[in-house]
Amino acid sequence: MALNSAIETEEREELRLAYKRLLVACKPMMEKDDIGLIRKALNITATHDAGVARNEGGELKVVEAIEVALVVVNELGLSRIAVIGALLYDAVLNGAVTSDEVESTFGKQVALITRGLVKVGELYNKNTSIENDNFRKLLLTFAEDIRVVLLIIANRLRTMRQLALYSADDQQRISSEVAYLYAPMAHRLGLYNIKSEMEDLVMKFTNREMYSFIAKKLNETKRARDKYIREFIEPLEKQLKKQGLKFEIKGRTKTIHSIYNKIKKQNTEFENVYDLFAIRVILDSELEKEKAECWQVYSVVTDKYQPNPSRLRDWISVPKSNGYESLHTTVLGPENKWVEVQIRTERMNEVAEKGLAAHWKYKGHKGEKGMDEWLSNVREILENPELNAVDFIDDFKLDLYDEEVFVFTPKGDLRRLKKGATVLDFAFEIHSEVGKKCIGGRVNNKNVPIKYQLQNGDHVDIQTANNQAPKKDWLNIVVTSKAKSKLKQALRDIEYKEAELGREMLIRRLKNWKYELTDQLLNQMVKGFGYKTVQDFMRSIAIDKIDFSRIKEFIINLEKKEEEGTESDKERSAENFVAGKEDLPDDDVLMIDKSLTNVDYKLAKCCNPIFGDDIFGFVASMGGIKIHRRTCPNALDMHTKFGYRIVKAQWTSGSDANYQATLKITGVDDIGIVTNISQVISKEMKIKIRSMAIDSHEGIFEGTLTVFVDNTNSLTTLIKKIKNIKGVYTVSRVGA
């Protein structure tokens, strides 16, 4: 491999080792000629300027390219085209090689991939805030070729693994993006291992304290957990061997992120989460025997351990649209503990881990069609120019995660919809015109309303009427992003037509009164009648919400005021406007962007930052800057949706200011424990208490305590001292 002469000796060795690992990984799945093309691609990148370019973490981009290619091979199971695309990405982006040269040397498919990657790169150089139109273009690029999606996911995974090298701001930005888009997308593509690792890494960089706490607890309980798993598995192994099945059975600890979600969802402590692990049985079965042998294992498991019928999940009979196949059940194991058991074959397991790439390996197997339908649906929604990007991404993310329901058309065609979909969703799924005219349906030969929720296996026939029109409350009935998008567009069309009708009616009436509709008069009327937009005002005229007599009275009053010389309708000049400073402390505690002083800022109430916290500023819609902690529960959402409104923030001095902090405390409800806590706070630490609320249940108390502290050091000391009080179980800062 040829290298750019500017690459340092140490890094040359790192490059060569990475290159060797790539060749070893590629050999089993590629022809000799393929390896030659990979060498050629890497030489192009390594010898040009792209070879010495560095990413935000300071690493050589050529090293990053090789390691992304390794993810593509080892974890996605892709081969030559995707690997070469990954290696050439930066070379094409930096102009070391053109797309035409790529096509002539490596073929049309590689050129298509690199063009897609370059489009993504160009969009990332612009503002890709989710409410910006570039974000829609980014997703549309993804939907053009699935390998572009897979390569970007590989790149983001590798970036997350190296995120410790990046600045704190970049860590937040990249984590937000991965949490909001790429982890859900990996889930939708069936890449469960990658999705889980991404979610864990996001949590590591956005909620490190909780991540470390759960990791430590898992480590402490590992020995007991392993012992329990052995006891659970042993009798099953014996019975499965008796039946002559070839299998592997093992316990798998759930991810830190999924455990954290259970703690939040169940509102409980770590010790009370029962399903910290799952048992997985992987069968070595022939294709035609797969289903039968999976159900055979299910029979063995449920004979030995009592099943919970409501927890059976059969994704073997009807796989998920991303191709996922598995049989899940929850049974009552030793010590009366509920345990999840997953049953699948080696082929199913590979599909679960490598997603679409494994489908290409097992050609002709069902599941690929479902992914094509999904990508087609994404394209259709994205190509709607009227679509609000924020609305779409919220619907899009929900659709990625949710389970599905399978229903039939009158002709017997199978349709997949999001779980919870209604008759109205199904109508829009067939065609937007059918959806707009839907008045109900016949499900399994019974008449049902448009809000009827569809169940697996339903046969659905939509009923329409020509005089039916979409209504705003339908938005509360539909749940799929496609139906919401089509319905919102239809409602906008109706509102636009109504507004145009209202405008014509107003112009005619004003003409009769000898008035002209000027922009100034229109703006005064919109404001005077309390409307936000001209369109809303015009619609109200069309649907008779505003009587013309009121409009005439309004205009006459305007004329009177003008004659009297009153200026009550004048808007306040921006020149004379001074931001209120009642919330600013006496001296400048914060320095924002290291250049602004005396800025109108407030400390956000959602996370109550105190001196010493890592913070950032968020430009509020009403003006001024809200200061948030980096661990604020709303931080991910703000970075993702409104990245352009984020401002760097830094404490410049502690001053004599007091900051509000809220603590959650649990412990034994003994006599005097509250007094002990109060004494430590007020007498020993000389800290002022703002409020205290205690609730007791079955000998355990739980309380919230709000105090005023100088900085994080004071708060940390306080937390340690309260933890040392006999009978106190936990002390944690709220919003951490």
UniProtKB/TrEMBL annotation:
SUPFAM superfamilies reported in the protein's UniProt record: ACT-like, HD-domain/PDEase-like, Nucleotidyltransferase, TGS-like
Q: What InterPro entries does UniProt report for this protein, alphabetically? A: ACT-like_dom_sf (IPR045865), ACT_dom (IPR002912), Beta-grasp_dom_sf (IPR012675), NT_sf (IPR043519), RelA/Spo_fam (IPR004811), RelA/SpoT_AH_RIS (IPR045600), RelA_SpoT (IPR007685), TGS (IPR004095)
Q: Which residues form a coiled coil?
A: none
All copies of domain TGS, residue ranges: 402-464
For this UniProt entry, which segments traverse the membrane? none
Pfam families membership: ACT_4 (PF13291), HD_4 (PF13328), RelA_AH_RIS (PF19296), RelA_SpoT (PF04607), TGS (PF02824)
Q: Domain of life, per the record?
A: Bacteria
PROSITE patterns per the record? TGS
- Stored NCBIfam families: spoT_relA
> What does this protein's UniProt record list under function?
In eubacteria ppGpp (guanosine 3'-diphosphate 5'-diphosphate) is a mediator of the stringent response that coordinates a variety of cellular activities in response to changes in nutritional abundance.
The UniProt entry's sequence similarity note says:
Belongs to the relA/spoT family.
Protein name (record): Bifunctional (P)ppGpp synthetase/guanosine-3',5'-bis(Diphosphate) 3'-pyrophosphohydrolase
Species of origin reads Carboxylicivirga mesophila
Q: What is the lineage of its organism?
A: Bacteria, Pseudomonadati, Bacteroidota, Bacteroidia, Marinilabiliales
